[in-house]
Amino acid sequence: MLDVLVIGDVNFDVLVRPERPIEHGTDVCAEIRQRPGGTGANVAVGLARLGVATTLAGCVGGADCAAITDLIRAAGVHVALRPVNDARTGVIVAIISPDGERSMASDRGANLALDEADLPEELIAAHRHLHVSGYTLFDPRTRSAALIAIGRAIALDKTVSVDPASLAPLRSYGVAQFLSDIEGIDVLLPNSDEAVALSGLADVERAASALAVDFPVVAVTRGAAGALWADQSGALRRPTMVGLGSVVDTTGAGDAFTSGLLAGWLAGQPPNSCLDAGQRAAAKVVARWGAQ
Fold this sequence. Notes:
By secondary structure, this protein is of the alpha/beta class. The protein has one domain (about 1-10, about 35-90, about 110-285): Ribokinase (UDP-N-acetylmuramoyl-L-alanine:D-glutamate ligase, 3-Layer(aba) Sandwich), CATH 3.40.1190. It contains 11 helices and 13 strands. The strands form 2 sheets. It has a 9-stranded mixed β-sheet, sandwiched between helices. Strands 3-2-6-7 form a 4-stranded mixed β-sheet. Strand 12 and strand 13 (about 235) form a beta hairpin. Helix 8 crosses helix 9. The relative contact order is 0.15.
């Protein structure tokens, strides 16, 4: 049996670092690079590099399928990717600010073709844990597949984790609906803003504790402020801060944290060790270009 089945997006990331603030109607010189990305692919690659036997399920453009599959396999990931011949592979353009933070525009492309047939019961049964990116729940074209997968995993007594993915689409989708969709999962992985939105509480520590009433583990990323863990024991745990060093690009930092934390949690490590592992993985990613 394999360890983790990841359901989520596979993208090309176009990373743009302007020399100065972008001005309307004129050119700005920039450093521009293309890197592999996508929340699903990032988490799967991160887990595999930590020695976790991982499968990535999703959809990619038919023209890119062979190259993307080879790239992901080279990282040690098993693949269950379907080529979609009449669609493009997803693309995200990220504008990177001097402090490494980014603003993004996304075209999810072939990721929106994911359906129930891509996630058969036997695929879920072959893994002990299911990880789902919130993006798959936010769009009506993929929501049913994600819900069915979560339901099947819970029915098969698998553990399940979900990352809310992004604040703006979470709000557009609806907090109440999202919480209903993920009822019964084991690990919720929001960032600070998502935790506040999901709980309705302004303080992130109170938000994490409130969410832990309904979810056995809540691990909240807080950017440069680190991370925290809340569970149904009522205790809040904060790890030793991991020095980030120079921050080049924060793209994929949250996905890297997810990989590190899940690898520790699946290995039975204590909460602080899981948080430390997540922070170490994120620190490595932000020190260079690209999410993987």
